[in-house]
Specification:
Layout lengths: L7 E2 L1 H10 L3 E5 L9 H8 L6 E2 L25 H10 L7 E5 L7 H10 L5 E4 L2 H7 L27 E2 L1 H7 L6 E4 L3 H5 L16 E2 L15 H12 L7 E4 L7 H9 L6 E3 L2 H5 L11
Parallel strand pairs: 1-5, 2-3, 2-4, 4-5, 6-10, 7-8, 7-9, 9-10
């Protein structure tokens, strides 16, 4: 029976799936917030053979004017719309999906989370990204995706990831147990700088764990026990199962979601609209420092 990967997968394990001819789809999610076209260019330059590109703005966010499931700079599409997109990209219920980028899981995590949100558990992040694949001698391809996939038979399932909206977070803020964890860089969290959103600062009471702290010197996720120790030290007495993760637009928070799961602390909730929705919602409090 083929193993199912639901958190991380190594380059060796991915090659094993390829050699087995398993039902497999690999997606390259490379992107650059400051240069939105750069991810597609990077994909054309080199990618894992057979991979397809999933663009943060065009594929993993709601199109302008379309229905959306969250607000913020990168609003989620509805689950129904995204399920239809997954089917057109060849994903079926029995497909093992592997996602990667070359930006420290900053963008691949988004697709990992969205598949869980749509009820698909068999999705894993390539640990170490494209760099790890190259370092282990993995083959590379150039140009557009040369493979053609028939439409998949993807059907929505019960959400396997929990999304929190602005109204419920604002309502519950300050209640015992709830912990908001902010994945942005510390200067943005403190309100010392804000390059992307109109208001600087953070959600009152939030804790700060920049998402890059999950990655070790080798570019891979830190060992599970180390992650567990770090998260428990940050949380103190706060229960891990009541953590809500966020960032600027619901993207870079996902590495924290994934890291907590790797650490054996469960799959915590995501505030998908994140700071970009919070700070644009009239009447909500803002903290600095």
């Amino acid at each position: 029976m083929m193993a199912m990967y639901s958190t991380l997968i190594t380059p060796t394990e991915l090659r094993g799936l390829m050699d087995q001819g398993a039902p497999l789809k690999v997606f390259d999610c490379s992107f650059d917030l400051m240069q939105p076209a750069a991810g597609a260019v990077q994909f054309l330059e080199r990618h894992i053979p057979g991979a397809s590109h999933m663009d943060l703005e065009h594929d993993l966010s709601a199109a302008p004017g379309a229905q959306r499931a969250s607000g913020g700079r990168h609003p989620l599409p509805t689950r129904e719309d995204f399920a239809a997109r997954l089917a057109t990209r060849g994903v079926s219920g029995d497909t093992q999906v592997v996602v990667y980028d070359r930006q420290g899981v900053n963008y691949a995590g988004r697709l990992w989370w969205m598949l869980k949100w749509c009820g698909h558990e068999a999705v894993a992040v390539l640990d170490g990204g494209l760099q790890a694949w190259e370092a282990e001698g993995g083959a590379l391809a150039q140009g557009v995706d040369g493979t053609t996939s028939p439409p998949g038979l993807f059907r929505l399932g019960t959400p396997l990831a929990r999304m929190v909206d602005t109204a419920s977070l604002a309502r519950d803020l300050g209640t015992p147990g709830l912990t908001v964890l902010d994945a942005r860089g510390t200067p943005r969290f403190l309100g010392e700088t804000e390059p992307l959103d109109p208001v600087a600062g953070h959600i009152p009471g939030a804790l700060n764990r920049p998402f890059g702290q999950n990655i070790g010197p080798d570019g891979c996720f830190k060992p599970a026990e180390q992650l567990r120790t770090e998260f428990l030290a940050l949380l103190g007495h706060r229960p891990p199962d009541q953590v809500v993760h966020h960032c600027g637009s619901g993207v870079s928070a996902v590495p924290n979601v994934l890291a907590m799961e790797v650490a054996g602390l469960g799959r915590a909730a995501l505030y998908a609209g994140s700071w970009s929705e919070w700070c644009n919602t009239p009447g909500l409090p803002v903290a600095r420092g």
